[in-house]
Amino acid sequence: ARVLQLARRLSRGAARGLGPEEEEDEEEEGCPKHREPLELFCQEDAAALCAICRESRAHRAHSVLPLPEAARRYKEQIQARLQTLKEEREKLLELREAEMGRIRELW
């Protein structure tokens, strides 16, 4: 959910021609602890981080990506899964229609 929220926020900013820094200023203050811009994404905790949080014990050993890169990766994963679900849905609808046809024949 956090990833989707971050991706949506970045998408809205890109659509308006705003950079990540401008988008954060417009919608929030940044890191609730340090009031620094949220520029990084901790993959283990699925959380946006500021540079200060990144160096804390809680995240120091974790894999971290720049926030736009993480949003792009998750967006690609979501789109791939959505495509798979659409294909499965189409197959199920075809199967349903075939079964409905068989039922009509039997009546």
UniProtKB/TrEMBL annotation:
The gene is Trim10_1. SUPFAM superfamilies: B-box zinc-binding domain. Residues 71-102 form a coiled coil. It holds the Pfam family zf-B_box. It comes from Copsychus sechellarum. Keywords: Coiled coil, Metal-binding, Zinc, Zinc-finger. SMART domains: BBOX (SM00336). GO terms for molecular function: zinc ion binding. Residues 26-67 form the B box-type domain. It comes from the Eukaryota. This is TRI10 protein. Residues 20-29 have a biased composition (Acidic residues). Residues 1-32 are annotated as: Disordered. InterPro entries: TRIM/RBCC (IPR050143), Znf_B-box (IPR000315). Residues 1-18 have a biased composition (Low complexity).
